[in-house]
Amino acid sequence: MRYTILIVEDTKDTRELFRLMLQVRGYQVLEADNGLVAVEVARRDHPDAILMDMSLPVLDGCQATRRIREQPEMRAIPIIACTAHNQWEWRGKAILAGCTDFMTKPFDADALNSMLSRHLPA
Questions:
Q1: Is 10 left (phi over 0), alpha (psi -120 to 50) or beta?
Q2: Is residue 56 within 8 Å of residue 8, measured between CB atoms?
């Protein structure tokens, strides 16, 4: 099965790096550069998982996650917070907003793939 992953990241270079790491592993990739676009893409395309930056323009990652979780058909989609903020406060905010898990940037392709493998059906 080919999974679709939505990358939500406002920094173009980071978004491209995520896209390359995922595509080489066979994932189909969707992209959003702010929280509002992320909500719209998630509603339209129903990705299998979402990598959500927490510091985003328009809607931050927590706000976007809450809006996605408001949609009954998207409540089970794994949303992984991906942020440079490693403080417990950020982890708590992300989980309270509805994120499934939390990764601190930078991370490598193997760590990303391992995280996705834990949350996607076999």
A1: alpha
A2: yes
Structure-token pair, residue 31: 């992209």
Predicted pLDDT at 1: 67
Beta partners for residue 52, in sequence order: 8, 81
E-strand ranges in 48-96 read 49-53, 79-83
**15 neighbors 106 (Cβ within 8 angstroms):** no
Q: What is the rounded CA–CA span in Å between residue 72 and residue 53?
A: 22
Q: How far apart are the first and last CA of the chain?
A: 9
| Torsion angle (degrees, nearest 10) of CA 113, 76, 122, 84 | 10
Condensed to tens digits (0 to 9), the pLDDT of residues 22-63 reads 999 999 999 999 999 999 999 999 999 999 999 999 999 999
Sheet holding 79-83, edge to edge: 28-32, 4-8, 49-53, 79-83, 101-104
